[in-house]
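Hello again,

I reread your note about wanting to compare the complex against the isolated chains. To keep things tidy I'm splitting this into two emails, and this first one only covers the full assembly. Below are the input lines as submitted, including protein chains and any nucleic acid or small-molecule components. They are followed by the predicted structure of everything together. The single-chain runs will come separately.
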Amino acid sequence: MIPRAAAAHTVPSRLRRTRAPRLGRVTDEQGPRPAPVRIRPEIAALPPYRQGKQAGADAFKLSSNENPFDPLPGVVEALRATVAVNRYPDATASRLRHRLATRFGVDPDGVHIGAGSVSILAQLMLAVSGPGDEIVYAWRSFEAYPGLVLIAGATPVEVPLTEDARHDLPAMAAAVTDRTRAVIVCSPNNPTGTAVTHDEFEQFVASVPKDVLIILDEAYAEFVTAPGSVDGMRVLGVSRHPNVVALRTFSKAFGLAGLRVGYAIGDSRILDAARSTSIPLSVTAQAEEAALASLAAESELLERVRHISARRDALAAGLRQAGWRVPDAQGNFVWLPTGADTLAAAAAFEEEGLIVRPFAGEGMRISVGEEESVEKVLRIAASVVQTLPEAHAGRALA
Ligand SMILES: *Cc1c(COP(=O)(O)O)cnc(C)c1O
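Full-complex prediction:
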């Protein structure tokens, strides 16, 4: 492993503060059309959100890391029973908060529920940062990070991943300055799949000033099987670092992506600040009830998660056997470093009815989907790897 030098301020040019702001978004083929009112320049420069492609009837949608299993009957029943939509929901989703507090052995004030953990990320950034402040995270990592930092008015500081697509935590610690207000650690990292170890994380926390918020984004925690990986609940339970907040979600392992419910565990004073910046009443009663029903069926859901993790391991092993260089995969997805050939490779998958998530010039993320999709992914991947030059970074060293 050859860690690259820390490269703070390696924000893509479209995000750099020095860039002359565009007056609006590209809305059609005619090119940029200025908005009718004055938009904050850093907002106008943001690319509009692009969702993973929708799959055709006979295609597999492997582009959004969704859970391929249908909702449990108990979850569907809970939704059917929650019909009083003329009423606002409970503002703090207190039943779910108490249930999670019991589940993880923390105080209920140390749990905060949001409409997806992405919304809690946004709340935390608004709570700790503004113009002139910096937020450090690894890159490439979760697509939402740069936009959320810019929306808060702060400056993103992106630290390149190591050669093996892992967080370079020493470089991230070195990128922290007196302007840094938060650092995001994504483990397993979306989209590369690699996990940070417990020891690495502890060392990292020890090397970051205590007044800097450390967000441990664990959207895929339940899929992790590598021993020694960081576990936010263990970190918070044993080490009790007051500046660490762990984020988890019901979207991935628990299959509630469409309902929008996630949670944060951490110091109640930090979570109070997140509550203050939140949009009130955005966690619906349906989301809360479905999450409670999911926790009631947790062992059944975790059994499904074990199937997905095993499927992931089989997929990664098959890809490596076919000649791909696949980083350690600890989420419900695998990463192919297709580099300059990414768009062509993604098109080859799409032609065969497999919708993947390409990141032009870097690689593609393929979610672990339905059982029948695995063989198909392997078949197409085996032919795509043959189209790559011998020395391509996507190929395993012979
Ligand atoms: C999916 C995901 C989330 C959370 O998604 P929500 O649906 O908003 O809970 C957070 N972080 C990462 C890295 C993700 O991939």
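For quick reference: The longest helix spans residues 298-321.

B.
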